[in-house]
Design goal:
15% of the residues lie in helices and 44% in strands. Strand 3 and strand 4 form a beta hairpin. The longest helix is centred in the middle third of the chain and has 9 residues. It has one helix and four strands. The protein has a four-stranded antiparallel sheet. It is an alpha+beta fold and 59 residues long.
Length: 59
Amino acid sequence: MAYKVETKYDDGYESIKEFDSLSDAKSYFQNIDERDIELSTLTDENGEIVAKKEARKRK
């Protein structure tokens, strides 16, 4: 697996999803809601961060 989406949710749950293609990983990553997470990162096969999302502050 070449691409990894790691997500830590605000309730403490952690998820790691692996993908063979960057387009599949990006699609999954874009559908993660910032209101439900603390942090989410999309990394490539070298472990370099391609994209990062942080929690959106609730009003």
